[in-house]
Amino acid sequence: MMLELFSLKGKVALFTGGSRGLGKAMAIGLAKAGADVAVVGRKADQDVIDQISTQGVRGKFYEFDLANVDGIAALVGEVKKDFGHIDILVNNAGVQSRHKAVDFPKRDWDFVLNVNLNAVFFMCQEVGRLMLAQGKGKIINIASLLSFQGGLTVPAYAASKGAVAQFSKSLSNEWASQGINVNCIAPGYMDTEMNTALIADATRSRQIMDRIPAGRWGKPEDMVGAAIYLASDASDYVNGSTIVVDGGWMGR
Length: 252
Fold this sequence. Notes:
Elements (H helix, E strand, L loop, with lengths): L11 E5 L4 H12 L3 E6 L4 H8 L5 E5 L8 H12 L4 E4 L14 H29 L2 E6 L12 H21 L4 E8 L8 H5 L1 H10 L12 H8 L10 E4 L7
Parallel strand pairs: 1-2, 1-4, 2-3, 4-5, 5-6, 6-7
Helix pairs in contact: 1-2, 1-8, 4-5
């Protein structure tokens, strides 16, 4: 009976950035918990759909560039038409650009903020309308350690992730009483493609590792439990929170 709290059977999850890294692991994890999964990404990935379908649930990929925020309403409408309803939204897609602050190009600043912040808000807005109409829903926004810290040479990323954590609280304040749970997951330093440069930098990688009590970089699979929890009925009284999955980094 207790495990039924974590079941996503019969639910439909809309997942951005689910074709690689953290997103792919979480999308497959939600499918294993019973959810049908609509995956959004810039380039179709049949492998993630095959792995979702292997779980006995439905998966479909939607090619879409989230920098095109004006197209989000049509995208959400297409997913609803195909699946009938949307119960879970996971805003995982994100981009990174590294430059010293004095040299940070406006082009890169605008791109990072558009994908990491604007697209996340407007996805929440469009899917939120559907969830409000049905009286229930779960929204999970992927934040970052840089929602709390400044980082180095990543001012646009830090700005976007700080903003995501804050506006998620704002949405929660408005929607919690109407059955919509809005929360965040903040991953720590994860062994993914986005962090290839950091991992390759022997000095910086050692500095990072020395601060992680768990003694290792995170793996995409480390995100799955938190995602299932926040997507399930088990978290019905969790609102406006950020779960940190970081091996203890923030506790140091």
